[in-house]
Design brief:
By secondary structure, this protein is mostly beta strands. It is built from one helix and 37 strands.
Length: about 550
């Protein structure tokens, strides 16, 4: 499989803002009008003018101006009781003067020295989280960030910085007292080392709204914003640098691949290159499962106004199309050669053998996995059974008593043809006679015959002459075939004289048997009928 690694000239950089969440600094209970206090409040941060940004922290109690969350009923002139966006500390500045003491254009600014100067011509993403202070009477727009090569060194001022144009500016009026992310992307025109945050527009160019129920003629008649988690990061040039995507770009049919955007963007969008109106995913990681070779378009956005694109083509290789055939049955002594086809890169049978063919000589399930030139694998299985020729044994003579019994020729996987034309494995005759059946399966056929007798065919003579003349020497009972019967001989007083089971037509066995009349009783196992009568012995 191929691993995609599309090069990118400039990777997403680290945050150039030192102490971005204002966590480093000294906690001070009361606010100060000394702009130099800002450097004490926050490590690496200062005030760009004479305006004094404020510090807030959850480490101080609500009796301090800087303590958050503040008591809403406190007499302190705290801007509002919000908590930090992250960590324990955050900053606050005036961005619009409203009508406080009829002053206009009153501003405060925060500035920070960047860890590295900006690269001229490079693109940067600027983000920060802001919240409108809940006690203030106004909300305003134009909060932005301006980048300079050095700190402001003009006349001391509490007002709008003259001739400063922000590189990133928020045109929305942020009225929410919850933290809102604002961001923008700009191209550096100077090797700036300073980032300054504030409103760089005069009041007439600033849009504002009064906040319901709040005073417009007091300290609170201003727009005041909390600021936290400031970031300045270099991002790819959208005109030169495609974003970097990693992942397998060659897969087998029915497989998936995971593609990842290596840079960090606020948003990622994945599309089919043939349909950029339908968003497939907005995650940094995208699981693609194309059925055929497909090209995807991925777009990275920062601040919803900046996009970097790239395309990724996923090649889908075919699977081997193999089959060992349908399950089958062989005759004993035969063998079968299995082959999924030739020309594959690898073969792997169920017993770990690796030949392209496999010889079967015993029953079982056989499986092969093959790998083609694309390293794509498929498997196939077959179950092979073994069968013997049919076996058959019908009694040569078959005796029926009260009802006709069943003649069975059952064999697995066989066909049957009886002499009557019947084709089931079991046949019930309805009269005496000779019956035969032929049983056939894939391994051979066999035929057997039986004669069916009934009680009506039995003949018992009533005279025997054991005088060695070769005629009527014994009691010959006919019509029973091989059916084993039990014969009992009694004298005329009912005393048993002789008994044999099965009877073999050999009474009397005693040549000295006295002449006279005898009685017999003939029975058959399983038959309710009993045959009685008399026999005369004459010498």
């Amino acid at each position: 499989m191929l691993m995609l690694m599309l090069p990118c000239i400039v990777l997403h950089g680290q945050n150039l803002v030192q102490n971005p969440g204002f966590e480093c600094g000294t906690d001070v209970c009361d606010f100060s009008d000394d702009h130099n206090m800002t450097m004490k409040y926050f490590c690496n941060w200062g005030s760009a003018t004479f305006g004094c940004p404020d510090m807030f922290t959850t480490s101080l109690g609500p009796t301090c101006f800087s303590g958050q969350p503040s008591n809403p009923n406190s007499s302190l002139v705290q801007p509002g009781p919000q908590l930090p966006h992250s960590g324990k500390r955050f900053a606050g500045i005036f961005t619009y003067s409203g009508h406080y003491n009829n002053e206009h254009n009153d501003r405060e600014y925060l500035q920070v020295i960047l860890s590295n100067p900006l690269t001229v011509g490079a693109y940067y993403s600027v983000t920060m989280y802001v919240a409108c202070a809940s006690r203030m009477g106004f909300a305003a727009n134009n909060l932005g960030v301006c980048f300079k090569k050095e700190s402001y060194n003009g006349p001391a001022t509490f007002y709008v910085l003259p001739d400063y144009v922000p590189d990133v500016v928020e045109k929305r009026i942020i009225t929410s007292t919850e933290w809102v992310k604002i961001c923008g992307v700009f191209r550096a025109t100077t090797a700036a080392t300073i980032a300054i945050i504030g409103n760089f527009s005069y009041d007439p160019e600033t849009k504002s709204v009064g906040r319901a129920g709040l005073s417009n003629d007091s300290y609170y008649a201003n727009a005041y914003y909390y600021i936290d988690d400031v970031s300045v990061e270099q991002v790819p040039d959208p005109h030169l640098s495609p974003l970097t995507v990693t992942g397998n770009t060659e897969i087998c049919q029915n497989q998936s691949t995971t593609l990842s955007v290596q840079e960090h963007f606020d948003q990622q969008f994945w599309f089919l290159a043939s349909d950029t109106a339908t968003v497939l995913s907005m995650d940094n990681v995208f699981k693609a499962s194309p059925k055929e070779t497909t090209t995807y378009l991925v777009e990275g956005r920062n601040c919803n106004e900046y996009a970097v694109h790239n395309t990724v083509t996923i090649k889908v290789d075919p699977l081997p199309r193999i089959s060992l055939g349908r399950d089958t049955t062989l005759c004993q002594g035969n063998h079968l050669t299995l082959s999924p086809g030739t020309g594959y890169k690898e073969y792997h049978w169920q017993d770990n053998s690796t030949a392209s063919r496999y010889t079967v000589n015993q029953p079982g399930t056989y499986t092969v996995a093959v790998k083609n030139q694309y390293d794509c694998s498929s498997t196939s299985s077959i179950h092979v059974g073994y069968a013997a020729p049919p076996s058959l044994h019908l009694n040569k003579d078959y005796f029926n008593c009260s009802t006709f019994g069943r003649l069975s020729a059952t064999n697995p996987s066989s066909t049957y043809v009886w002499s009557s034309g019947f084709t089931d494995s079991v046949y019930v005759p309805n009269k005496s006679g000779v019956y035969w059946v032929t049983v056939k399966n894939q391994c051979g056929e066999v035929t057997d015959t039986t004669k069916v007798h009934t009680l009506a065919e039995i003949f018992i003579p009533n005279v025997v002459t054991p005088n060695d003349d070769g005629k009527n020497e014994t009691l010959m009972i006919t019509g029973i075939g091989d059916m084993p019967g039990s014969l009992t001989i009694l004298n005329r007083w009912g005393e048993v004289q002789w008994n044999q089971y099965p009877y073999k037509n050999e009474w009397p066995t005693n040549k000295s048997l006295p002449t006279g009349s005898y009685y017999f009783l003939l029975t058959f196992p399983g038959c309710p009928e009993k045959y009685k009568g008399w026999i005369e012995v004459i010498k």
